[in-house]
Design goal:
Length: about 140
């Protein structure tokens, strides 16, 4: 009888309690993420925005010094350049993709003489806008 009682107690102690369910990671991230701060720009349509003005806008948006913004932006551009030069397509948020496109060799024509000319194969830097950016530029047409 003592053996049966001992076996019953070992069986009951072997069952482990379940841990409480964890919250999903997505819900936790949504709760922790602060609201996006609107970017304030003072651009005039048709005018070119200088690098200095862009750096000032980034610094103002993040509440940092202009020199810190320059370090951040320069580092970002260097990384993008490195990937593009390796042949990767770099997607930049909702703006678009930067890539290198290969152009095949082809026959062209000299416009002055009309003589056929061989054009060598080459590479070119290309940008492809995203659907989101295109829709914003087109104004929802």
């Amino acid at each position: 009888m003592a053996r049966k009682a001992a076996k019953k107690t070992t069986k009951t102690t072997k069952t482990a309690k379940k841990a409480p369910a964890r919250k999903s990671a997505a819900k936790a991230k949504k709760a922790a993420a602060p609201a996006a701060k609107a970017v304030r720009v003072t651009a005039v349509p048709g005018k070119t925005v200088t690098a200095s003005a862009l750096l000032q806008a980034v610094a103002d948006h993040h509440g940092i010094k202009k020199s810190e913004a320059k370090t951040f932006v320069d580092g970002y551009i260097d990384v993008v350049k490195a990937y593009v030069l390796k042949g990767a397509k770099v997607k930049i948020g909702d703006i678009g993709m930067v890539m290198v496109r290969a152009r095949k060799a082809r026959m062209g024509r000299n416009p002055q003489t009309g003589e056929p000319v061989k054009i060598k194969a080459s590479k070119k830097l290309a940008f492809r806008q995203s659907a989101v950016m295109k829709a914003q530029v087109m104004g929802g047409r």
